[in-house]
Design goal:
alpha+beta; Nuclear Transport Factor 2, Chain: A; 2 domains; 14-stranded mixed β-sheet; three-stranded antiparallel β-sheet; 6 helices
Amino acid sequence: MAKTYLEAVRDSISTAEAHIVTEYDDDFEGTLASISRVPRYAMMTEPGKVAIVTDEPGVAQFYQTTQAQFALHSSRFVTQLASDWYVFFENVPTRQLLSSGKLVTLNTLTLFPKADDGIRGEFLWERYRDEREAQVPNVDNPQTPVPIEAVRNLKLHSDHLDRVRAGDAAGIEKSLSKDCIWAVRSILPDREANPMMKAEGPSAVRDYFEKLFAAWEIREVSVLTRTMKDWFVFAEEHWVITGRQGSDEGNTVQFRKASIYPVTRVGELQGELGYSTNIESTEWSERPALGRPFWLGEGYKVNDDGTITK
């Protein structure tokens, strides 16, 4: 049976994430096993230079070289675009230079095409300053520019989804601005009569989520697509839920939801405006949620100037 587009998109994300996990686990053999036997790589080796690799020995040498130079500390995908055959990330990664122990934070773009036997390869560009930027203000800062507000907003959205997965209505209320507004397609038991839900203010939003968690067990919320700037997050999410009451009781269903999450200047969720596909039955077994950031180790933080300290 042919896979649906949703299944193919999920496969693209899980294939890319499976590869990334091996790098964070420092699993060299696992990394090589996660790559297609017909690799195609275009990787920035230093500012302004890109190396092409099209064979397995070249791929092995590339990873041996990078693992000798630095250790991965975190990845924060402030943009994730996924299709049935690729995933694109804008990342704000932190690496530790093994020669000095210094932590370096970058801003990168990576394309992971998917093959039947793993990722086809990586296409990586690292943001860097060139000589023409001498006229740009604040060039005395040697740090590569990084989108700090976007990293903050990624964490806001990621934390919000963790609270949704945990059924934590009280925690959701505490994360909201006083003027928050929720307006989404309803999945509550009375959705036929009231197809849209609107809630104004933190207590009203908490009341909505308490009703939602009473009606449904949240089995999985994965991020398919996500992008953000300093004042918003946009995400397409894949929800799998099981009914707890009424005609939905015992039924496991899925839907995709596209939402705008505005964010205040001080870093609070200001609301959600979203719509979803129709609820449809699905088979589901325990599996990890896709689209989660790879966060810093315990005790590390991002400073306002983009540097990382412990």
